[in-house]
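One-letter codes give the sequence; the integers encode the fold. A sample entry reads:
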Amino acid sequence: MKGSVFRKKSIQDLIAATNGEKSLQRELGAFDLTLLGIGAIIGTGIFVLTGTGAVTAGPGLTVSFVVAALACLFAALSYAEFASSVPVSGSVYTFTYATMGELLAFIIGWDLILEYMLAVSAVSVGWSGYFQSFLSGLGIHLPVALTAAPGAVKGTFTIFNLPAFVIVLAITYLLYLGIRESKRVNNIMVILKVLVVLLFIAVAAVYVKPDNWQPFMPMGFGGVFSAAALVFFAFIGFDAVSSAAEETKNPGKDLPKGIIFSLLACTILYVTVSAIMTGVVPFAQFAGVDHPVSLVLQSAGQNWVAGIIDIGAVLGMTTVMLVMLYGQTRVMFAMSRDGLVPGSLSKVHPKHKTPYVATWFFGIMSALLGSLVPLDELAKLVNIGTLSAFVLISVAVIVLRKKQPDLPRAFKCPGVPVIPGLAILFCLFLIFNLGWVTIVRFLVWLLIGLAIYFLYSRKHSKLNQ
């Protein structure tokens, strides 16, 4: 199997690697992991995409969130089984390496680069918009040329999105300092932004007019499913929890709790917020609005709460970028430790115990993308990358149950192969609702990855030594 592209890394070897020189510090418990998941999930989805989803699905947006959540829940159960059984950095990349071989593992790792890095870049642009709005309220205005990427605003000369660049570098520095410091900052910001969302629910609920919910699905099920494929972006992030497996104190018990609890909590908040939004403001009025939650409160005459919501949006997007960049660096750390990408990316800082080269490399790349490139189709590309990862992890659970039935499993996905099979069907359904242009772009990205694997990774793989 030495030269085979389907050579596998044994689970025993994967776990043994976590005790070597290139190992990470175990700092996270179930509560930390749950907040890590909520930190990654509640952000752009609830503060921005709810408006776009409402225009597509009408009040039926609540059903769209449930459909997207089901796809995530079925996949989450598969993630929980793998993450608790193979508590190693790398998320679905590592799990695929152990079950379906090196080539597919590399491809899914390459896929995760697309998901995490572009997600950080996209969210940094949204963060910049809210932050500039907040500064404007204080009478502070940045030079127009430094407010957006070149060509991002029609009719306006812009060259660089300075706030987007600075926030990603600040988050990169925090991750460089260590998981303990990152955990503390994330936990505080997540608690604050959940309180902001609860404040919105409490204030806006009294202004709901049930007549605004009629017709419930103005575009039919087609609109609901199209919105589900779009707002799936709102759930991206819970899978990043599995990237923290190697830094979890008790992965067998804590990882499944962190993954499932964060997903369920966010689903309840999403459905509640979308129902209130479309009940207060007729869905058609959300067209072209990039701050739908604030718009609802402004329509209700609660401008003071709208200002607080803007602060919550800034906090929400900050934690999304923090967790997504964290997941990115841990996947690259694992791939580097396996020899599939350059070894420098798995260098661990002697003091901070973090993969500092990978952290700074991908932090700078994400900062430059967000500040220099208009990313109008980014949400769809990020979605298709994530959905593909969910398909593979679900297949991997079925394969491992058949090939290694006696493997110790701290958590077992129920109903195998039915539950993973449902995850596969739901995810493929959402992929085809993203459109052929997005699918073609994704295939081009995968072809580039294949070229890198056969020209570099296959030869330098540790299993090839």
In short: The longest strand covers residues 147-148.
